[in-house]
Amino acid sequence: MDVKITGKTRLTGLLGSPVSHSLSPAMHNRAFQFLRLDYVYLCFDVVEKDLKTAVEGLKICGIRGFNCTMPDKNRMLELTDSCSKAAEMIGAVNTVLNEGGILTGYNTDGIGFMRAAAENGFIPGGKAVTILGAGGAATAIAVQAALDGISHLTIAARPGSRFHNRTVSLLDSISRNTGCQTELTDIRDRKELERNLSSSDLLVQATPVGMPPATGQTILDDFSSLKKGALVADLIYNPRQTTFLKLAEASGFRTFNGLRMLLYQGAEAFRIWTGRDMPTEEVLLLLQ
Ligand code: NAP
After folding, report:
1. Looking at residue 123, which CATH number applies to its domain?
2. How confident is the model over 64-104, as pLDDT tens digits?
């Protein structure tokens, strides 16, 4: 399909560093072309110290909106005029809408994950969720799942985690804002983990263990204590089926990988900028 840039083409894009590996330009540009929308999506390699200047410039140039990735996601929160409840609680913005110089920040990662979970039959109301890992992706999912109505959330992390203090205040904020009961456990304490797994309706693998260079490794190899009928997710999409998911499936659990989370976080950003639904099945062809 040809890209036709006109005098009226609206700009969207990605800010972060590095950004050259990103799948977002291919996803959004395919969707713009498919729907014949006069928009384009470009990548801008912007380090954190230059973010404010870059955002001011793009704003003056009339950018419609943009995504933010590391290291700019957290700093971006301070540069928006207002932000969604999820972005505020997560402490990071991955999507910005520019309306006449007024910037609104969103975080669509958790929304993308919850849509993928819903497609796999997960209805959050009153459910218990355990997340392995306490990084950026875990945080976004924890907040969105709580906002969507789960009643119990456990984050299992390493005792010396880089994110320990942030996780303690995150869980406090989640329980204050949503009423969801929260717990932080030591991922290496098998007894504690098994106790949590026995009442978990959804188990989420949110560490990089299982992706290159740790392909073939798994954070958990025994699913026998996991609640019967639970849904198991791995945020990794390369490889498509990690050892974690293989073992969960072999133990009789339904599973899904991170591909649809990637797709749907983009779809939500696309909707925010254009007001249109992303043609997700068309875009998915690019990712497979
Ligand atoms: P991150 O911010 O770096 O956090 C990674 C977390 O994993 C940290 O809590 C880290 O613990 C923990 N961890 C790493 N190795 C571990 C190990 N051996 N044992 C126990 N915990 C370990 O990363 P992220 O951005 O959240 O990404 C996490 C995963 O999700 C990655 O695989 C990423 O590719 C994937 N992801 C997928 C999507 C999607 O759209 N599908 C989106 C975002 C991320 P410490 O703090 O102790 O180091």
Report:
1. 3.40.50.720
2. 999 999 988 999 999 999 999 999 999 999 999 999 999 99
Q: Is the peptide bond before 279 cis (omega within 30 degrees of 0)?
A: no
Which atom in ligand 1 lies closest to the alpha carbon of residue 133? Answer: 9
Return the amino acid letter for 179. G
Band (247; pLDDT cuts 50, 70, 90): very high
279 and 146 within one domain: no
Contacts of residue 66, defined as CB under 8 A and 6 or more positions apart, other chains included, come to 12, 13, 14, 15, 44, 58, 95, 96, 98
Which atom number of ligand 1 is nearest to the Cα of residue 187? 20
Q: Which domain holds residue 84?
A: 10-107+262-287
**170-217 per-position pLDDT tens digit:** 999 999 999 999 999 999 999 999 999 999 999 999 999 999 999 999
Report the CATH number that the domain containing residue 34 is assigned in CATH.
Answer: 3.40.50.10860
Check whether residue 123 and residue 251 sit in a common domain. Answer: yes
Q: pTM for this structure?
A: 0.97
What's the Cα-to-Cα distance from 104 to each of 76, 99, 126, 183, rounded to whole Å? 10, 8, 31, 31
Q: Whose CA is nearest to atom 18 of ligand 1?
A: 209
Distance from C-alpha of 137 to C-alpha of 214, rounded to nearest angstrom: 18
How many CA within 13 A on the CB side of residue 213? 0
**Number of domains, the chain:** 2
Within this chain, do residues 84 and 213 fall inside the same structural domain, yes or no? Answer: no
Same domain, 266 and 139: no
Q: Are residues 141 and 217 in the same domain?
A: yes
Report how far ligand 1's centroid is from the alpha carbon of 203 (Å).
15
Catalytic (active site) residue 4: no
125 and 102 within one domain: no
Does residue 114 share a domain with residue 103? no
Q: From the CA of 137, how far away is ligand 1's center (Å)? A: 7
